[in-house]
Amino acid sequence: MSLDWIYYAISWILLTWHSAWDAIGVPVGEVIGTNWAWILAIVFLVVTVRVILFPVFVKQIKSQRAMQALQPKVKELQEKHKGDRETLQKEMMELYRKEKANPLMGCLPMFLQIPVFLGLFHVLRRLNPDKSEAGKTLYGWTVGQFDSASSATIFTAPIAGKFGSTAEELARLGANGTTVKVIAGILVLVMMGTTYLTSRQMILKTGWAEDPQQRMIQRLMLYGIPLSLLISGAIFPIGVIIYWVTNNLFTLAQQQWVLRKFPPLVTNTKPGATAARNPVQPARTGGFLNRNKPAAQAPVKPAAPKVAGPKPGAKPTNPKKGGRPAKRQG
Please, what's the largest Cα pairwise distance for the chain? Predict the structure, then answer.
């Protein structure tokens, strides 16, 4: 299947944002060794994609909440079918179907972004000043736009360069090999760190899954993917790494907002304790600058002490009289 439609879509969004920043007045030439109009075009490519995928992200959060709510039932099934893995898997699939929970929904936003990543990778990899005019105008580019992007840099390293660029590729881009390796290496480390933090942030809030398959996916997301980037990052153009880092930072901010607005279910993991679902959260008042202060409580007036009445038939007492008995008269 041809992926040209993805390349055209990515190119259109990238060129539209570049034209917008150019119209606003962002310098087209280098400032501090950086062509900011092209860097901002890549950054706002991320923003555009994330806005489009926001409804999918909300579904991801709902699915994660549903999976978390099912953890007690999953644990019961694991105890019930201990040693019978085939029956356990069938029972769990039936539970997920009945409760309309999808274990794979948590990875859906990432899977949907893979075509965007591959499209940007292909478009930036093509940036080569030596291409023919027909090659430069592919996917809706003009010759001027293609030449501008081919010479675009970040701190003097071309966005089309990569850590593993050959001497021939660096010569075509007019780049210094040491500079490209330093900038690309730093960005790869940042990419690995932010990828790890996005997974760690969600796991710390929702906890480790009881389901072995879910726990395996969590470990893969937390450790496997960041470590794989140490190798694969060497073949990514610098512009693609900028996209990945920006996407991770966007994810961190988005997850923080969602986790504050829709806190995860609180479960008591102590032995013998009952899990508390949907706990009542204290109301936040005071707006942006006073959001964490509890609502003010109205002062409670102290109750007046109750005075016991005289018992029926009791003689009235006069507190004004002294306690000394009266003298008898002889």
Answer: 143
Instruction: Grade residue 281 by pLDDT with cuts at 50, 70 and 90.
Output: very low
Task: Tell me phi and psi for residue 320, to 5 degrees.
Answer: -75, -25
Q: Beta-strand (E) ranges in 195-255?
A: none
CB neighbours of 101 closer than 8 A, spacing ≥ 6? 63, 66, 67, 70, 95
Six-digit token string for 294? 């509890």
Give the Cα separation of 302 and 265 in Å (integer): 38
Q: In this structure, are residues 45 and 17 in contact, taking their beta carbons and an 8 Å threshold?
A: yes
Who wins on pLDDT, 226 or 330?
Answer: 226
Tell me the β-bridge partners of 31. 34
Distance of alpha carbon 117 from the chain centroid: 17
Q: What percent of the chain has pLDDT over 70?
A: 76
Note the pTM of the prediction, 2 decimals.
0.71
